[in-house]
Amino acid sequence: MAEQLPPLSLYIHTPWCVRKCPYCDFNSHEPGTNALPEAAYLAALLSDLDGDLALASGRPLQTIFIGGGTPSLLSPTFYRQLFDGIRERLSFSPTIEITLEANPGTTEQQRFIGYRDAGINRLSLGVQSFRPTQLSALGRIHTGNEAVTAIAEARAAGFDNLNIDLMHGLPQQTPEQAMEDIDQALALNPEHLSWYQLTLEPNTAFFSHPPPLPEEEALWDIQEAGHQRLEQAGLSRYEISAYARPGCQSRHNLNYWRFGDYLGIGAGAHGKLSYIDSQGKWQIERRWKTRQPDAYLRRANDPRGFVAGQQLIEPNELPLEFAMNALRLTEGVPLADWTAHTGQPQARLLARLQSAQEKGLLMEMPEKLRASPQGLLFLNELLALMSEE
């Protein structure tokens, strides 16, 4: 049965941050002066994984992504023990990609060496900006110089697959300042760059008290100039907000966009799993775990386990679910994948595509479902057309 199912990844959530950023809507919590409960969280994560093992269906893990929060607050010893425990339960692909998110202000070279020795082979550094005014406005706890130093220390520790997270459209940011951030990032020669616009998400401090953001015209100028600068530097755009050198795309994120499966463990983690039920019917289920760290740790001794909720994706919801992921990729996906993942015939899809093509939101490529450059900019409009009955 494993051969019929999509590739499998693992997402691990660490819910603690030194300080909550005003734009962040992720599940992150300040631990205050308390030491992080590494031993208890390690035991809980492995117990959480035990509850999901049946849904792995014997598949090896192709990628692991450790996100947060700030995963680099936890020690290299924690991750070495965690990976040992995971290997006792699941096999790893020989070419597994293991990514750790790290903040420049919470790391130093000795930790990077420890992370590399533990088996982490890809780092994602949350730089966001190199400019003091923007870093202060974003509530970041590092400086631009600390970001540069962290990247140098990561290289010295042996990391040859590095992502830099960079934001644009920041409070009072000019197009010239946004290009300076890109140029600084490019000078550090990353294999991958995630470049995305600041958005004001509900339940954040910025949403309640919006900062002064650039005008719409300036945002367009930043986006166009930044895209050209990155492409000219040899980082090709492969997803709406992701650029990479050849062969250095995030395999974990590609599995998301290609509608692969992933287990999710840790406080607030989400997973998406495919399986064939007892009647031979294909099912896709989303499940999510208890959010609050203290409540999550208490679930380790609770017969209910860690799952806070689960939901089967109804057949009529599959087309939009698939399109929301696949159309983020600049290369698109084969049309054959539509039927494989949604159970709907291509004829039904093609009837929906005509309007999107007439509006210039889809490329005219009969073998692939692929958004045009305009479609990537107006993805919500494209998805609305794709979901029309």
TrEMBL record:
Keyword Cytoplasm belongs to the record: yes
Matches recorded under InterPro entries: Aldolase_TIM, Coproporphyrinogen-III_oxidase, Elp3/MiaA/NifB-like_rSAM, HemN_C, HemW-like, rSAM, rSAM_sf
Cofactor(s) the protein requires to work: [4Fe-4S] cluster
Location of the protein in the cell: Cytoplasm
Gene Ontology annotations for the cellular component aspect, listed alphabetically: cytoplasm
Matching Pfam families: HemN_C (PF06969), Radical_SAM (PF04055)
Protein name, entry field: Heme chaperone HemW
